[in-house]
Amino acid sequence: MGDHILEEIWANICWHLKGQPQPDINLEDIVSRNFTKNDGWMNIHYDIEDVELDLECLILDALLDDVVLQLSLVLYSNPISC
After folding, report:
1. C-alpha pair distances (Å), 65 with each of 8, 59, 60, 72
2. Where are the chain's structural domains?
């Protein structure tokens, strides 16, 4: 287990040392290099799902509140006589 951690740390150090400023490198090269590393820092799939579910709940709550309000207004403005 310890060897694996050291190898991962060493790989990260080497990767960052390769990223030292070079005169002929442009921003697109840097960005593409970061995306090809694929270390999971941009994996926001689960975060997007959480936001979608939260937004869905907020919209549903707002719709239900609106339906209840509209029904109460209709019922109180036109009372049912027995």
Report:
1. 52, 10, 9, 11
2. 1-42, 44-82
